[in-house]
Amino acid sequence: MGRKLLLEHANVPGIETFEVYRRNGGYRSVEKALKTMSPQNVVEEVQASGLRGRGGAGFPTGMKWSFLAKPEGVPRYLLCNADESEPGTFKDRYLMEKIPHLLVEGMIVSSYALGCNQSYIYIRGEYMWVLEIVEKAIAEAYANGFLGKNILGSGYDLDLAIAPGGGAYICGEETALIESLEGKRGNPRIKPPFPAVKGLWGCPTVVNNVESIAAVVPIVNDGGAEYAKIGIGKSTGTKLISACGNLVKPGVYEIELGLSVEEFIYSDEWCGGIANGKKIKACVPGGSSVPILPANLITKTAEGTDRLMSYESLAEGGFATGSMLGSGGFIVFDEDQCIVRNTWNFARFYAHESCGQCSPCREGTGWMEKVLRRLEHGQGHMHDIDLLAEINKKIEGNTICPLGDAAAWPVAAAIRHFREEFEWHVTHPDEAVKRNFGIASNHMPLV
Fold first, then answer.
1. Residues 6 or more apart in contact with residue 261 via CB below 8 angstroms
2. Which residue, 97, 142, 421, 434, has most beta carbons within 10 Å?
3. For all residues of the chain together, what is the average pLDDT?
4. How many angstroms separate the CA atoms of 239 and 254, rounded?
5. Is the pTM of this model over 0.70?
6. Count of C-beta atoms within a 10 Å radius of residue 352
């Protein structure tokens, strides 16, 4: 049984209330930090933990905090990015629903470390019921003296508020989130300046993901060095994984980083294997924006070593044979699923969610969606496959935010590993239309 640092008490009845959360050890990190540690001590513990951002990029959280500018007389802000919306990723929603006080506690300790007296949790519009849960937790924290003026008699003041988003995927990008929070259209900003220097209302700002902020609680409670002992290499600690697709037991799991992918998929403790006795065909291991891997590269690398649930192992081989841990959105496809149809679905999402600010993304995502729709509906041509690859090259790396790359990588990887399936849709148009779930039963993935 793997250790659980975030979800240990997730199934305790009433854990969403302050009283039960407190009775189960809640808010100990606030007491410890505010009574016995300086803000710099907290930053140092987070740096020692090796915690990497859990939103997708995997950048070291302590290092990100160290970049925060500290000009005299200028407020600083901590923004929690709860705008989770990538297809296949729903672990932050689960955490906020189950243990909202864990996020509030993490916000208090993190804000103290960064010298912030006003912080915000930016929650996407489609999560309105989650917003109400977190809002209630914040009110309870105020009522019990953990928010507001002179918290626990420490002299530290913090106000915490929720900022509801409009439900646009792009607002998960940190500068677009800041624009949205300022009341403007959620378009990304050109960097530099980075938010750590010039963020919300022109002030130094840190934007962290829900899970990243929640992880600060056990780090402060037990120490950064203890946290760093969990995991493998530079992938320290535990990670929430939202597993979905053709699995026996889809759900949100907290794993110790370094667990083998094979054990995660097939062990009864985790996903329990592929549903209905089918074989696995492919997997998107880190949310819809990361490259898909065929069956022969999911549990083993191209070198034949075990593939692990870690930032390094999933990326081994680069995009030729590897992928990314990303946001932890783990999507599994069985042998009956159609890769072309799935790729089209992802492309539809990114075409819809492009903010339209950059021409390569605005035009390119729309083109990709149209070409993939042709192929899926038996109206494609063989040159369409190369056309998709060309469009990908025009988008990738040519936009001011990562949405362009997020749209391009899934399509490029699908063609790289499953080109023969795309060709089959061209050579068998009638069958492609009739068989909405593809040719998987007799398909051998390309390496």
1. 285, 298, 299, 306, 307, 308, 309, 314
2. 421
3. 94
4. 5
5. yes
6. 12
